[in-house]
Amino acid sequence: xxxxxxxxxxxxxxxxxxxxxxxxxxxxxxxxxxxxxxxxxxxxxxxxxxxxxxxxxxxxxxxxxxxxxxxxxxxxxxxxxxxxxxxxxxxxxxxxxxxxxxxxxxxxxxxxxxxxxxxxxxxxxxxxxxxxxxxxxxxxxxxxxxxxxxxxxxxxxxxxxxxxxxxxxxxxxxxxxxxxxxxxxxxxxxxxxxxxxxxxxxxxxxxxxxxxxxxxxxxxxxxxxxxxxxxxxxxxxxxxxxxxxxxxxxxxxxxxxxxxxxxxxxxxxxxxxxxxxxxxxxxxxxxxxxxxxxxxxxxxxxx
Length: 303
Hints:
Elements: E1 6-8, E2 11-13, E3 17-19, E4 41-43, E5 60-63, E6 66-69, H1 78-89, E7 95-100, H2 105-115, E8 123-127, E9 131-132, E10 138-139, H3 144-157, E11 161-165, H4 173-182, E12 187-190, E13 194-197, E14 199-200, E15 205-206, E16 212-216, H5 221-234, E17 239-241, H6 248-257, E18 261-264, H7 267-270, H8 274-288
Parallel strand pairs: 3-4, 3-18, 4-7, 7-8, 8-11, 11-12, 12-17, 17-18
Antiparallel strand pairs: 1-2, 5-6, 6-16, 9-10, 13-16, 14-15
Helix pairs in contact: 2-3, 3-4, 4-5, 5-6, 6-8
């Protein structure tokens, strides 16, 4: 028997496979495909303080080995989540993680404070890739001072597990990982989507209404893998890797590079049960290599 459990700095998961925010809805959408409680954790779609309609259509486009999206955090707000969604997702026998977003620090605080009232939520993922409207739209996660400030303020009010999701759209991602650790993050997840665009040559128009969007899928995997490897060496807290993980071999690569757990995103659009297939594949890998505990894989890359 392989011990698939992992400990993310006090947040114990039954296995290292987590679903990525924005790709798994609120979890219940996948009930017809598999038992969601098999997952190590689920990260729900991004939540904001007030309801958001999201960006205009079209806001998704297929690309070579990936996809672009500019959904724009469409959701009904934290209060709707607390009263309507939370009673449903809290019944899953797995960790439910809330992806917290905001256009300014006050909005982040409002969401995190409301989630703190929900006793079955043991962790939040702080998405610092949101645009800071007070700085002209620059993302919190691409500006060192803003990143530090928002993490610090959330840490003051959120006493449970704090996972900080980093943007790859920076020159030196290690700097932001160190900032997150210094400000009290319990773990780091990376990478968020890379900024990209797609053009329809026949119409001579962009394929997204917002022109640019976030690139995900296999196309970003080499970049994500490199950043996970770098960050895992720069900080002492656990790293959760994501970006183009489509199968168990991809997941193992991220763990070898230093990830303690992984998030599955775009793959769920291709095969809804991909996350549980990956759990089984990781178990098979450990069995074939006589690995008793999956945590032994983390950071074991031979160079």
